[in-house]
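User: quick one, fold this
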Amino acid sequence: MNFVEWTEKLINEKVEENNMNSILIVGPGYNPEALDDERHYVMIPEQGKPIDKWIDEFRMSEHFRLFDCIILSRVLEHIPVREIDWHIYQLYSIMDKDSELIVIVPDMPAVCKAMIEEDEKENPNEFLLERLTYELLSEGPHVFDRHAFWSSRKSVKRLLEKEALFTVDESLIEEIKIDSTIVPPELLIRAKRS
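Assistant:
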């Protein structure tokens, strides 16, 4: 399943399960206007604008509302460590109490383990090693393209809970496969806004 199909499935599940009607999607290349469904309000920030700047402008706009759910898909690992607390707080500030933050990140410890196992083979699969390297480090001409935050079950939970903004139930952390079947599953972490 590709990430567009997966995102639409997740949105529909959230709407059906919880009667959520305002969802913010922060992540790469998803068009909520493609959803032909008036049961809910789905929004994405302006592409290329830092999320904290977008939130500042959104709070002052005529479209401002608190969200029932925010889907942070493949974004958290790109936020520079010096700025990550501020971004988490900014997301918290536009969420309803008890709303849900859904975070999708690479399982970096699993990627490292797979890289080591492949690298130690007598004839390693070079394509797989390159793909795993990309999964771990990402790349691109801009700093924001690269991974900056070590994402694991514990690191994301610790980050979200350290200022008591969110709570994470470890038993609800899932391994998910989106797009690629050759790299380890990504992590889906559900947090409740305090």
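User: anything notable?
Assistant: The longest strand covers residues 95-105.
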